[in-house]
Amino acid sequence: MKFTESPVIELPVGTSVLSLQQDNGSMHVGTSVWPCSLLLVKFLDRWAPLPPPENPYSHLLAFRSKRAVELGTGCGVAGMGLYLLGLTDIILTDISPVMPALKRNLKVNKRVLGKNLKHSVLYWNNIDQIRALNPPFDFVIATDVVYIEESVGALVSAMEALVADDGVVLLGYQVRSPEAHKRFWELCGEVFEIEKVPHEHLHPEYAYEEADVFIFKKKNNKQ
Ligand SMILES: C[S@@+](CC[C@H](N)C(=O)[O-])C[C@H]1O[C@@H](n2cnc3c(N)ncnc32)[C@H](O)[C@@H]1O
């Protein structure tokens, strides 16, 4: 898998560099850094310095006063990267067994981030945990989270429950399972308007053929 073989990955974001520590031998996939997380962060990092009208994504980068949650954060790459780009009110979530890897990465990067980012246990099928986060959020972030067919329904429901009617889901995506892929896009098509970022708009050093960035907005609430 691209980018992820080394136990430590250095990711430049803006004027900072995140250091990502992973345990590729663990039985939990969240203790490795998955390349779609790098793709999503570097897509926004590429466009962040450009003002409108040259920047077609300036609306996505208007992070001031916005609330965000990341689903299946793993080592926390996407959440930490977007935090450095200005999305400062963000909570990173994952299942309990992944929390040690997340906390380790938050600690390692505390100096770069300037603080310990908010994090919480969230299983996508746990309505009480979803409610406890106090939705709606302006941004729901997720990267490389579609790989188990059985959990796809809960994932899409969690996205729908968490994102505001005028909010945005930012998704870094690669096909990991044909069954999960099919089910995910069927369900998303019922709930969201889906925009795919053209490949030439991704960061040239981090883009690769199999991966994409998608922008979802709730149907009937497209802005
Ligand atoms: C392939 S990893 C991606 C991790 C990270 N987003 C990245 O791109 O590096 C998938 C993540 O989704 C989380 N996940 C899987 N099923 C979940 C569920 N039902 N509820 C919450 N998180 C889940 C896993 O624990 C894991 O951290």
TrEMBL record:
It comes from the Eukaryota. InterPro entries: Methyltransf_16, SAM-dependent_MTases_sf. This is Methyltransferase. The lineage of its organism: Eukaryota, Viridiplantae, Streptophyta, Embryophyta, Tracheophyta. It holds the Pfam family Methyltransf_16. It comes from Crotalaria pallida (Smooth rattlebox).
